[in-house]
Amino acid sequence: MEDTVLRSARLTNTEEARGRVSRTPLTRGLAFTAIVVLAMGCGLGELTADYGDPVTLQASDLVGNWRSGERRVIVFHEDRTFAATDLPSEAFHDLLPDTFDPSRDLLDGAGDWTLEPPAKEGVSSAVELTFRQLGGELVAMSGPHPSVLEDNGVVRLTFFYVGTGGNSWTAYEKCAADCE
Questions:
Q1: Which of 18, 24, 38, 76 is the most buried (most CB within 10 A)?
Q2: DSSP 8-state code for residue 34
């Protein structure tokens, strides 16, 4: 009997020495609960996030310069073309040219835009972007398309995407004056 107790104690000490701590049902339950709460918190935060209300834009509302931060600018011209500087590359991850390196290159683009009215009540106008140039290469592709949302009286064009840190977004606000 004493040999069994000593052998059991030696195994426990050996497991602890290897960094394995025996887990009790309570410890396992607490760890599981913590994981579930963390996962739900992340998911609920995304589900309950309020990025703004849908907006109906006219073409004249879209024409002009839109900025996000210091370098990111999209210029929408009256002739339904656009030019963009430093687009969020993570929003374009599947569409980037092979030669593009996000660690060294800015993602510039140009093309044509259309503005579709809301399909139904409670839905934003749809800004459709068709790229002819992206990341220094000629392309012919549609999207991604920014969402049109208003929050506290400010209209934003917002790209939603999954980035390196999880769900993310980049929002552009219209400049009151030229901001190229």
A1: 76
A2: H
